[in-house]
Amino acid sequence: MLLASLLVLMQANPPAADAATPRPAIGRVRERRRGAGLERRGDRSMAVAGATRMSYGASEAQRILLWPASRTVSASTRPPLAVYVHGGGWQMGNPERVSDKPAFFNGQGWAFASIGYRYLPEAPVETQAADVGAALRHLRSEAAARGYDPDRILLMGHSAGAHLAALAATDPQYAGDAFAAIRGVIPIDGAGYDVPLQMRLAGRFMLQRTYRPAFGDDAARQRALSPMTHVGGRDAPDWLLLFVTARDDARIQSDNLASALASNGARAQSLGVESGNREMRAHMAINVEFGTSGYSANDAVLALMRRIESAQ
């Protein structure tokens, strides 16, 4: 549990490997990570290759990395935009660490953006969710100049970022006039969709180190920051909730949120991703290996993308 908890905070999401390196399946992450030390030393410069940097606020943390769509399209057929929210226990993180996601989405003709946001203790979770919303609004304002569709956005995130993405896609106060543009959501291995439940499910170390600093002890605040609380309102219409099969809290939270969304008219699927790794190594792998060859959720991800592409 100690190793698991520390790894949630680290949110080690390494950058894309060299294009010549074979893309391993999620259960083979150990081979890929033999050179992790070298990757970490160079990850920032590697990850931002091909990206345009934008700011949406005064803080250094309020930055966006945009990888434009690889295809040239007309104004009437602009591609959708995938927006990624990194994890880090609401306390740290790095939007430059995107692994192979830009290549995956660009390869499908999409634009891809990774957004930064402010962290605890400077910014409470409410402010972090507001940063996500502000980044979405900024991205929509740049759509005409950057060549993507401002009204077809896939919002995704990992771990704490999965919580923030789900919150922004269920509670319209954060995204404001960008809310309707969220056509699909992919939360990856989050466990904070029902915060009061997670306060009970989390072990003592995780509770003290991660969840209590983020959500405190006020039950009303915990409910307000729970995506589950807001389901049944103006929910985003299409969801794919990915979780590590062996991770009980993420499975319970993902299943519960998918069921609630489906009961209230959204299209929602929770999908476990198998891994031969230990629990928290898999928590990294499910994110690092997203979209690579052998990733077991690829078909479901691509199906959701096709639905967004056909959305009017």
Characterization of the model:
With about 300 residues, the protein is an alpha/beta fold. It has one domain (about 1-15, about 45-310): Alpha/Beta hydrolase fold, catalytic domain (Rossmann fold, 3-Layer(aba) Sandwich). Helices cover about 45% and strands about 15% of the residues. The chain is built from 15 helices and eight strands. The radius of gyration is 18 Å and the shape is globular.
List the helices and strands and how they pair.
Elements: H1 2-10, H2 29-32, H3 36-47, E1 52-55, E2 63-67, E3 81-85, H4 101-107, E4 111-115, H5 125-141, H6 143-146, E5 153-158, H7 160-168, H8 172-175, E6 182-188, H9 195-201, H10 204-215, H11 219-224, H12 227-230, E7 238-244, H13 248-263, E8 267-273, H14 279-288, H15 298-310
Parallel strand pairs: 3-4, 3-5, 5-6, 6-7, 7-8
Antiparallel strand pairs: 1-2, 2-4
Helix pairs in contact: 1-14, 5-7
Total helical segments: 15
Helix content: 40-55%
| Quaternary | single chain
The main β sheet shows up as:
8 strands, mixed
Helix-and-strand structural type: alpha/beta
Alpha-carbon distance between the termini? 46 Å
**How many separate structural domains?**
1
| Rg over C-alpha atoms, rounded to the nearest angstrom | 18 Å
Total number of β-strand segments?
Answer: 8
State the low-pLDDT regions, or none: 1-47
The CATH architecture can be given as 3-Layer(aba) Sandwich
CA-based shape: globular
DSSP strand content? 5-15%
The mean pLDDT is 86
Q: Biggest sheet: strands side by side, in what order?
A: 1-2-4-3-5-6-7-8
- What's the level 1 CATH class? Alpha Beta
Per the CATH scheme, the topology name is Rossmann fold
CATH superfamily placement: Alpha/Beta hydrolase fold, catalytic domain
